[in-house]
Amino acid sequence: ARVAGVVEAAQQIGYPPLVAEASLGVGSVELALDEVEAARAHLEQAYFVARAVVDHRTAADAAMELASLTG
Which runs of consecutive H residues, i.e. helices, occur in 1-71? Predict the structure, then answer.
């Protein structure tokens, strides 16, 4: 999806909480567009980056989105 550029921009800024939020947002959009593999990659990135910076809310949101992929 074209929204993936948002994650790249966040990575260039270099602020991990922003990368986690951007990855979550992009993954959510990709999931809504049924781009499952891209969504999974961005949601996993959101989860692991959020965990690393102790952003519990973003990590939990990403985990819930990931759980919806597996049912």
Answer: 4-13, 16-32, 36-52, 56-70
Helix (H, G, I), strand (E, B) or coil at 71: coil
List, for residues 11-63, the tens digit of each pLDDT value.
999 999 999 999 999 999 999 999 999 999 999 999 999 999 999 999 999 99
Own/partner pairs, 43-52, CB within 8 angstroms, 24+ separation? 43/69, 45/7, 45/19, 45/20, 46/20, 46/21, 49/16, 49/19, 49/20, 49/23, 50/17, 50/20, 50/24, 52/16
CA 18, 1, 36, 28 torsion-angle sign: positive
- Does the predicted model carry a pTM greater than 0.85? yes
